Amino acid sequence: MDETPEDFEKLDAAVLAESKKSPAKTVLICPQCGSRNVTYWLGLKAGCQYQCKDCGYIGAFVIEE
Questions:
Q1: Which of 7, 22, 54, 59 has the lowest CB atom count within 10 Å?
Q2: From edge to edge, which strands make up the β-sheet containing 47-52?
Q3: Which sign does the torsion angle of CA 41, 32, 28, 36 carry?
Q4: pLDDT tens per residue, range 22-54
Q5: Handedness of CA 26, 14, 62, 44 (dihedral sign)
Q6: Would you say 10 and 3 are in contact if contact means Cβ atoms under 8 Å apart?
């Protein structure tokens, strides 16, 4: 796959939007075990990925409360 400047602009915008989220306002919950011990893990072409520190779940789907 060839990356275009538009791909990088979209990635930059997504990373910037994610970094502006306040952790105090958003609680992430693991969809697998229900734990609140979830952190931002990775964000490239696959989109934002999160990791549960309790059960090891890694994925894009988390519950935000």
A1: 22
A2: 38-44, 47-52, 58-59
A3: negative
A4: 666 788 999 999 999 999 887 777 678 899 999
A5: negative
A6: no
Q: Kindly tell me the sign of the dihedral angle through the C-alpha atoms of 12, 14, 18, 20.
A: positive
Q: What is the pTM of this model?
A: 0.57
Query: In sequence order, which residues have a C-beta less than 8 Å from that of residue 26 and are 6 or more positions away?
Result: 64, 65
**DSSP secondary structure, 1-65, as one string:** ----HHHHHHHHHHHHHHHHS-TTT--EE-TTT--S-EEEEEEETTEEEEEETTT--EES--EE-
Structure tokens that stand for 15 in this block: 């990373």
Domain tally for the chain?
1
